[in-house]
Amino acid sequence: MKTRSNWWLAAVALALMAYVWLIDRRAGARVSGSGGASASFTPIPAAEILGLELAVSNRVLAVNRPQPGAPWKLRLPLEVAADSARVQSLVQALGRLQPTSYLGLAEMTAAGGARAFGLESAGGTRLTATLREGRSVILQLGLPTLGGTRFYLQRVGDAGVFVADRALLETLPSSVDDWRDRALFPTPREGFDRVELKGATDFRAERDAQGNWRLKRPLDARADSERINTLIALMEHVRVDQFLADRPVADLESYGLQTPAAELVLGRGAQDLVQLAIGSVVTNDTAHRYALRRTGTNLLTVPARVLDPLVQPLSQYRDRRLLGEVGAATAIELAGTAATPGFRVERTNATSTNWRVAGPKGFPADAGVMDFFLRQFGQFEIADFVSDIVPDLARYGLATPVRSYRLTSGTNLLAELQFGTAVAGRPTLIHVRRTDEASVYGLPTSITGQLAHVAGELRDWRFGATKVLRIRVRQAGAERVLVRTNGVWNHGRGRLDSIAAGNLDATLNGLGALRSDRFALIELAQQQQFRRIYHLDDSPLTVTLEIDPRASLGFGQWTLEFGGELGAARVALARFDDDPTPLRLQVPMILFEDLLRDLVW
After folding, report:
1. SS3 at position 147
2. Which residue, 200, 181, 184, is CA-closest to 233?
3. pLDDT digits (tens, 9 = 90+) for 563-589
């Protein structure tokens, strides 16, 4: 019997222990003190906190949010955006709050009551956390303990005093400014589609449906979208140093805001979302300036450098790309002039990377040269905005342009560029205009050398050795001829042996694969100067290749006239058939030496 009774008593004891454990777990952790008193402290669920109110003496700060994860907003003493990160640090500290000791009512009374612990209800610090469904937790915060590493607090509804780590106190704001969002202005989710600057720089720009910015004031012109986006991003990252006033300022002159150094307006549609004026430098503090948020009548101080992007000249916000990307072009046409015939080059089909010169004489265009040609159009940058009102094109040499290029995509005109005379007083710049814009621009004169100005510069001369049927070599009045018959090379003394023929074919393959900058020498004076500088008339070597007409290269004869050295290359004049305009080429020295070995004997 006794054994059965003992087992029964043990089971009851275990059940009671489980009950107490469950109750304590539901109510929170049990906290005890040295005096023997204890109390349960229920953790505060940080994720459920939707409001905080901090009352210190007669000053109240309050923030709330509509739901967990949403931004915090100040509710008292004024309604403005809150610094969510700062508020959230207090929320997280409340979630981690776990007292380490407890003093019961008797101990508290013996020590001098609530006043001794800084917990008097009048004039003390009270923190209220509002949870979901309207529940709230109210904490009376008291003095630090003797060592300073902990502090006293009281949970309203409990007569005793808890002792906890002072980490919570470190997250409390000392003023409303500690909880205010210091961003200079909020950014709407949809962004801005209008920006205006007033003051030393004055312009208005609007964003189009493709996200690109365009100037609307003081002129209608392309804007530098990247720079305007950077301006907005820079301003979005500016932080307020001090909040000086939250009501209309009567004496704007004292802050340099009657006539601001600059004003920034950001809007969406017709609505002004940001109106910011930058005033004078703060007295005795050159690192900061006064600023006024007109939309909120807030007088602030901000870093002085905020003014720099707002007073850049208008030219800094204009798009300096002459054209931008033109990779969609399917045809390029150069208008002819008295000095040079024009040409038209087209893709072989709308999506092809192969091009062909369509006129005045048709032949394949080099795909690599065409790729470079197109990229040059996209990379030209405006060096100077010469004029935005053009009363007389002749003044800029544009009434009868020196050159004029049309870029089209199918039947759509992408752009037409006209090149005029040199900019007055600036010989390194040339006048250029787009026919779809009123402005005249100054671009480096070097760009004219980067654009093909005769069709021959675009020529594709790639061929294999088997396409060469005849070679004529002339030097010092002598001429030698090699002829390929039935795949076998012969010269005046008979058939070339297999080694010599193999070397010759390898050299011809090298010529057929030659990649060189090519520059047309149009004027006779240019040709004469070139011949003189590179000694083409001293003892020239001339090689003429006759091409199998079935190769469809667009030429039947290629003549190379070699001159002097230029670095690791020999310069040469190249002529195709009866084209009167030779091309200046550079032949690598190793290839030239192979030519001497195989053709000069």
Report:
1. coil
2. 184
3. 999 999 999 999 999 888 999 999 999
